[in-house]
Design goal:
Oligomer: single chain
Order of helices and strands: HEHEHEHEHEHHEHEHHEHH
Helix content: 25-40%
Strand content: 5-15%
Bound molecules: zinc ion
Shape: globular
Number of strands: 8
Number of domains: 1
Radius of gyration: 23 Å
Largest sheet: 5 strands, parallel
Structural class: alpha/beta
CATH architecture: Alpha-Beta Barrel
Number of helices: 12
CATH class: Alpha Beta
Strand order of the largest sheet: 4-5-6-7-8
CATH superfamily: Metal-dependent hydrolases
């Protein structure tokens, strides 16, 4: 809500006007002509049972987070929060290689063994003749330092762009995951038993026309993929690059994060899963997308209960964790409280058996892979 448009109900002015104090809420009304769509923050009118678990029902592994904290005290506090939330381990996707990876590795693992560190690819010499040789050598060095996987790679249509940045931090696109110039790296990942976490595309509403029919309009005002950018691939073309990479590297284990951003099309996502047994999904940072369609989402979880991994991705506050548990575990209906979406949320009420696998047991399959079994 545009806070400037919210005025406390002024008893003094009402007294002058001879009106009774507000009975519903304490805010002045905002006309439909004034209220901006992107400021719309509804509160549920439904008087329904609410459940607010403050820890995971079963021991849990978070397969998708980032080095959010840099201060040792804050990292220690995070480790304590993990314990309080029943999270036994967190995979920190650093994107980093070289000195930066080593620094993060030493910092996090020196504080708690709950943190498992994954590295990025060294794309610094991308486009040069010795790129593959250098990148593979650095991958091996990171592995020897202690990296147990690779991530997060990310391709939003112009090529992998999470591991190569300008000095000011802007992402530089390189090539898609199915490009032959990735072969040496992805084959080395298979040899070293390092799973690869990859972000493909973005939610469908980011690609849609900005008009009154766009279901994600309020968010698309800030987050948008510009399909007029020369050479950019759309979401389905992006999914094809993932399928090609899975087929090209059958011994490499891929974890496509955020459900490949295909939660609007579970039928197609299921087809991809059926064809590519070396592909896992993580559910990180898409709870609000999936909580909009609880029955279809629950059915998808049940169908793919052996290959969905739990992840958070967001800033590790207690509020963020609370929302995960409420959405995945409860049957609460029509509530708000997300970070980005205006859609009402619904608990998925996942069966215990499915919850245990997603929270924990599927991560053991990743450990088995890492250990070469
Ligand atoms: Zn992420």
């Amino acid at each position: 809500m545009n806070l400037k448009a919210y005025f406390a109900c002024s008893v003094i002015s009402l007294a002058f006007a001879g009106l009774a104090p507000c009975s519903y809420g304490q805010e002045a009304e905002v006309s439909a002509d004034e209220l901006r769509l992107k400021d719309y923050r509804p509160e549920s009118v439904f008087r329904l049972p609410e459940h607010h678990p403050h820890e995971a029902k079963y021991s849990c592994v978070d397969m998708h987070s980032h080095p959010y904290e840099s201060d040792p005290e804050a990292i220690r506090a995070w480790a304590e929060r993990l314990e309080a939330n029943n999270i036994e381990k967190v995979v920190i996707l650093t994107y980093a290689h070289g000195e930066e990876f080593d620094r993060l590795y030493d910092l996090y693992t020196g504080i708690s063994d709950r943190f498992e560190m994954w590295c990025g690819f060294d794309m610094d010499s991308f486009g040069e003749p010795d790129f593959e040789e250098k990148a593979v050598a650095e991958l091996v060095r990171c592995y020897e330092k202690g990296a147990r996987g690779v991530g997060e790679l990310g391709d939003k249509g112009l090529g992998e762009s999470y591991c190569l940045r300008t000095e000011s931090g802007e992402k530089i696109p390189t090539m898609h995951l199915d490009d032959p110039r990735f072969d040496a790296l992805l084959e080395k990942c298979a040899e070293l038993r390092m799973p690869v976490n990859i972000h493909i595309g973005d939610p469908i509403w980011m690609y849609e026309k900005m008009d009154e029919h766009n279901d994600g309009y309020m968010n698309a005002a800030d987050w948008k993929i510009d399909l007029s950018t020369p050479g950019i691939l759309d979401l389905y073309e992006m999914a094809t690059t993932l399928k090609n990479a899975c087929a090209r590297h059958p011994n490499t284990l891929f974890i496509a994060c955020h459900f490949v951003n295909l939660t609007h099309d579970y039928g197609y996502l299921s087809e991809i899963m059926e064809r590519h047994p070396n592909l896992y999904l993580d559910n990180a940072a898409r709870h609000e997308e999936t909580a909009a369609t609880p029955r279809a989402t629950k059915a998808f979880y049940v169908k793919w209960q052996d290959r969905i991994l739990f992840g958070t991705d967001n800033d590790p506050s207690q509020d963020m964790y609370d929302l995960q548990w409420r959405i995945l575990e409860t049957d609460d209906e029509h509530f708000y409280g997300g970070y980005a979406y205006h859609w009402p949320l619904h608990g998925l009420d996942l069966p215990d058996k499915v919850l245990r696998k997603v929270y924990h047991d599927n991560s053991l399959k990743i450990v088995k892979y890492q250990n070469g079994k």
